[in-house]
Amino acid sequence: MVKRSGTDVTVVATHLTLYRCLAAAEILAGEEIECEVIDPLSLLPFDVETVYTSLDKTGRLVIAHEDTFTGGWGAELAARVAGERFGSLRAPIRRIAGHDVPLPVSPVLEDVVVPDVARITDQIRSVVKGRGGNDGA
C-alpha cells in the first residue's frame, strides 16, 4: 500500500521503521526530494507488484527495517528486485537495517541499533544524490 506518493525514490518499510521513513520523507520534501513510501502490509504474501510499479516510476529503491542487515526480509526483496527488475534501477538498491547484533532490551542500546529518522534521512538522501553505500553492520 502506497502511504505517500513521490517521484524520486521508492522506500519500502514496515512497522516502526515505516513511520520513521514517513518522517524522513517529510524532511526530504523540504529539500525537493519526493519519496514514495510503501507499506507492504505483510511479508507473505508480499505485494511486490506495488513495489515494481513504484520502482518503474522512481528508478531508485530503499528498503528499511528493524531486522538485522544480514538475513533480514530486505535482503530477499533486494534480491528479487535485482533479479526481476534490474533494468528499472537508476541507482544501486540501498538497505537500511538494524546492525548485525542481537536486539538489545535496553531502550538506550536499542536506539543505537535500530535505524532512526536521521539515519534513514541521510541514507535516502545519499541514494538520490548518488553517493555512499549500504548501511549495514
Topology:
Elements: E1 2-4, E2 9-13, H1 15-29, E3 35-38, H2 48-58, E4 61-68, H3 73-84, E5 94-98, H4 107-113, H5 117-129
Parallel strand pairs: 2-3, 2-4, 4-5
Antiparallel strand pairs: 1-3
Helix pairs in contact: 1-5
Structure in words:
The chain has helices spanning 15-29, 48-58, 73-84, 107-113, 117-129; strands at 2-4, 9-13, 35-38, 61-68, 94-98. A five-stranded mixed β-sheet has the order 1-3-2-4-5, with helices on both faces. With 137 residues, the protein is of the alpha/beta class.
Total domains, how many?
1
- Pairing-aware structural class of the strands and helices? alpha/beta
* Morphology call: globular
Low-confidence stretches: none
Enter the CATH topology name: Rossmann fold
Q: Give me the Rg, rounded.
A: 14 Å
Sketch the topology as an H/E string, one letter per element.
EEHEHEHEHH
The percent range for strand residues is 15-25%
Biggest sheet strand order reads: 1-3-2-4-5
CATH architecture: 3-Layer(aba) Sandwich
CATH class: Alpha Beta
How widely separated are the two ends?
29 Å
Give the overall pLDDT as a whole number.
94
Supply database-style keywords.
single chain; 137 residues; alpha/beta; Rossmann fold; 5-stranded mixed beta sheet; 5 helices; 5 strands; globular
Question: Quick summary of this structure?
Answer:
This protein is of the alpha/beta class and 137 residues long.
